[in-house]
Structures are given as structure tokens and as C-alpha cells.
Automatic annotation (TrEMBL):
The protein, known as: Palmitoyltransferase
Localization, UniProt: Membrane
Superkingdom in the source lineage: Eukaryota
UniProt EC number: 2.3.1.225
GO molecular function list: protein-cysteine S-palmitoyltransferase activity
Cellular-component GO terms for this entry: membrane
Main subcellular localisation: membrane
């Protein structure tokens, strides 16, 4: 006996912008800063934010 395949439900489109990390421009350093960083006024560089 042959097994009948049921048609698969259509998959929703993938929203890549919500998956990929957002890169931001640091106006002080004049460069792209990585995700989860901020510009430190003491050391004058972009540093990783501390998670609480």
C-alpha cells in the first residue's frame, strides 16, 4: 500500500531584520559599534554593556 502524503502548510516568510543584530554608528568614534556596546566617556571608546 502506498502512503499518501498530506500537503504541508505554507511557511511564513522569515524576517531577517529581526534575527540579525543591529549595527549602529558611534558619532564619537566615527565607526560602526558592535551590538550591546556604548561609548564610554571615561575611556573614550566603545565598550560592551554589562548585563544585569
Amino acid at each position: 500500500m502506498k502512503e499518501e502524503k498530506t500537503p504541508e502548510a505554507p511557511r511564513p516568510p522569515i524576517d531577517f531584520e529581526s534575527i540579525l543584530p543591529q549595527t549602529k554608528w558611534c558619532k564619537t568614534c566615527q565607526c560602526w559599534k558592535p551590538d550591546r556596546t556604548h561609548h564610554c566617556s571615561i575611556c573614550d571608546e566603545c565598550v560592551l554593556k554589562m548585563d544585569q
